[in-house]
Amino acid sequence: MQLIRAGSIALALGIGAAARADNSFVTKTQIYTDNDHTTVVSTVVAASHDAWRGATLSTAYVTDVVSSASVDVVSNATHQMNDVRHEVKGALRQVLGDTRLSAAYLYSVENDYASHNLQLSLARDLFRKNTTLELGYALSLDDVRRAGDRNFHRSLAIHGLVGTWTQTLTPATIAQASYSFSYDAGYEASPYRFVPIDSPIDGTIEFKVAETEPDRRFRHAFVIGLNRHLGKDSSLQGDYRLYFDSWGLLAHTIQLRYFVKFRDFTLRLRERFYYQRGADFFRTQYTSDHLTPFVTADRELSTFWSNIIGAKLSWRVPWQRRQTLEAEVKVDVLYFSYLDFALLQTRLGADVEAGLSLAY
User: How many angstroms separate the CA atoms of 192 and 84, rounded?
Assistant: First the structure.
């Protein structure tokens, strides 16, 4: 079963090398669970090294252990799904004056999915570092298989571009705007998902067909954000994201984050609201007298809204030497309301994370 598509361009473009040229080690464990009988345990181990002047080498390893008996799994005659995903990444970041170059390679694999990812970015500071322009490109080449079926083999290629403008407005205010575009070509359906086709007479299921989705997808996303320093030791960040694609999906995201620091502790409060209009071909019910070329039972393509409320507390452990040790714990509560998905109306989940980071 596919766990996470590592080729997601939105994520790939947002993951760069280390934020500064320094030696560091980070380890985190995250646990996600919800009332749809899904649990994911993720572990991250990452390290970076100040290799030569202006250059930082970094590497990371991620593993996801998934156990699910969700409606999506059960509705396809499977009682439980268990799987493990492994991901490794290597990156290089080079600073040349006011210019930063980054390159990274990421490989992700699970029992029925493999993904190769290339990430490149170029950033330039202008006007005494008050303006930063950045351009990024990501390529994902994915290999899709189906467990227990040696004859099933599909591919997916994703190309992504993102441009970001960051502007210092005042000593206490920073604004940012970005546009991202991606082009998907290949297989994007689930090899395990079969869509029920109902009788137009009494609504009973006549038969099921394999999920089919368009093999081309153009995605667009615009983001605007504002960071404002408040008082002595606090700041407020807000952003809005507009997303739409060639499948007819339209989404709005509003996010607020508040940071406050007291002594060696930093508290972050987070609120994120998301609304999505479903894809053009998504239907609550498909009937045999009006079959369309594309059919799906993917709730991620339905109309829904979600809300995330969370908090993260970081503690910078007092350290007498040059090293910096920081511990953190994070808790997010997630709520989803599906407006036209027949198998599930709501989903409530929690995301808990704990981690340590050492810079030296």
Answer: 17
3-state SS class at 127: coil
DSSP letter assigned to residue 212: B
Q: Cα 253 from chain centroid? A: 14
pLDDT tens digits along 66-91:
998 888 877 775 778 889 999 999 99
Cα-based angle 330, 69, 76 (whole degrees, multiple of 5): 135
87, two tokens: 């991901």
The pTM of the full predicted model, rounded to 2 decimals, is: 0.90
Strands 346-359 and 304-317: unpaired
Q: Cβ–Cβ contacts within 10 Å for residue 262, how many?
A: 9
CATH class, 9-359 region: mainly beta
CB-based contact 70:36 (threshold 8 Å): yes
Question: 19: Cβ–Cβ under 8 A, 6 or more apart, which residues?
Answer: none
Where do the structural domains in the chain lie, given as residue ranges?
9-359
Give me the count of residues in the chain. 360
